[in-house]
Specification:
Strand content of chain A: 15-25%
CATH class of the largest domain in chain A: Mainly Beta
Order of helices and strands of chain A: HHHEEEEEEHEEHHHEHHEEH
CATH topology of the largest domain in chain A: Jelly Rolls
Structural class of chain A: alpha+beta
Number of strands of chain A: 11
Oligomer: homodimer
Number of helices of chain A: 10
Largest interface: A-B, 51 and 51 residues
Strand order of the largest sheet of chain A: 1-8-3-6
Shape of chain A: globular
Chain lengths: 231, 231
DNA sequence: GCCTGCGATTGATGAACATCAAGCGGGCTG
DNA sequence: CAGCCCGCTTGATGTTCATCAATCGCAGGC
């Protein structure tokens, strides 16, 4: 592990509050591994072996069924993922692959379950993390059911702007085809979506999106004051 | 509380394993209330006051935005709901209303959070419940993104058949318009969906659905061996 | 420098689904 | 029992989105 990374991982909401001894137990049982781009980390249906913590790189979680497939989430560092499968010890509902070369901390699933049982602080953090993840999924599902594609795109841009400082400059960090899949649309329609939003306050140049007229963009995208609340 | 109900609630996965004294603390701080049909229990955006446990009746959780609305879940007894909002103390992401006259146990949210902190068994049960709920949402989102409407309907029938004994007789317990909204389609299209599935192994008569040719229904609906696994 | 490959774009067409508009039928009320 | 209401169904039409096909533009390799 590189200097500075261990504290960064220890400072994740998931591990921050836990007993130091137990945290050492977690860390000493885990190992950091480097993966090349486009490598499948695990497949839908497998029993979870490890809790994953993306330390550096970019990972895609995706689902597939009957020939079709869709990306469910793009994981950026530093974040843990597939916690729910690990705590329930049930098969993954999604597959995962690296998008670029990535460094991932692998925590044996059995160890996680064991330490969770012993350390109430970790259990509480896990509970909170799962609650947040659940709420994230509720948002994603309502987004998909209530909005049409260009509105979803508009809201994604507003979200990203918030995360990237709120100054109206947004950089798309994944390929547009991936973004399309995340939004539940085709790359062609994503293109048309950007075209449509050009008339509603944005400018696009490659991966650089600029919000030129926020009120117009919000009027079109109709962000929900509750669901899309910054907090 | 009617005789037999308290043990039934105490036997919920959420409360089953917890310390008896703490459970009494929960129960003595809560109250059971009867609500008429079509009553709004809470609205999207409110701070959660109570953890709800549906003891008898039927409740709809729904979301709405920009004039459109969609039902997210139909809650049957005996089940708790909106646990995630309660443990995070964040605003509801969904609204709730009774579909029929319902009896609901209201557990003050602050009490839940307090007892969760003191009782590790309850915390663990909460954690598991949230993990399951998360996985349920992952299923729902992939269902929405990967399948088209008639396939979703087919899979819902297969699911319900499993829950109702697996003998090929399924009773729809909600109005079809509600089912349509749950599946993310219009009532008109739900009708057409049933029509289409008539050619793929089902018969419909009112709220009674019969699976006449399970292989055909499965060939059409393509249930996922992992995601739609009975277990 | 030019070729090549691949992602992004643009246009034309078609499928899935929503919307609009009647009818149908069953249960409830007077 | 008749009438009516309401949910469901059925058909006709329009919108949204996917698909197919062609082109553009840029980056890497020879």
């Amino acid at each position: 592990m590189r200097p500075g990374e261990k504290p960064e991982i220890a400072n994740l909401p998931l591990f921050r509050e836990m007993h130091e001894g137990q945290r050492d137990r977690i860390f000493s049982g885990s190992f950091l591994q480097v993966f090349p781009p486009q490598l499948t980390l695990f497949e839908l249906g497998q029993r979870p072996d490890f809790l994953h913590v993306l330390v550096d790189g970019l990972v895609e979680l995706y689902a597939h069924s009957a020939g079709r497939d869709t990306t469910m989430r793009i994981v950026e560092p530093v974040t843990s993922f597939i916690l729910a499968a690990v705590v329930t010890d049930q098969p993954y509902l999604m597959s995962a692959r690296t998008l670029v070369a990535s460094r991932i901390l692998l925590v044996p699933a059995a160890l996680v379950r064991e330490v969770v049982k012993d350390d109430c602080a970790l259990m509480q953090a896990t509970m909170r993390e799962l609650a947040q993840a659940y709420r994230g999924m509720v948002r994603a599902l309502t987004d998909m059911k209530l909005r049409q594609s260009a509105e979803r795109l508009g809201n994604l841009i507003l979200d990203q702007d918030r995360l990237q400082g709120g100054n109206g400059k947004v950089v798309l960090k994944a390929e547009k085809r991936l973004l399309a899949s995340l939004l539940g649309m085709t790359p062609e329609n994503l293109s048309r979506g950007f075209g449509l939003l050009a008339a509603h306050g944005i400018e696009v140049s490659g991966a650089q999106v600029t919000i030129t007229d926020r009120p117009a963009l919000e009027a079109y995208s109709r962000p929900d004051p509750v669901r899309d609340d910054p907090a």
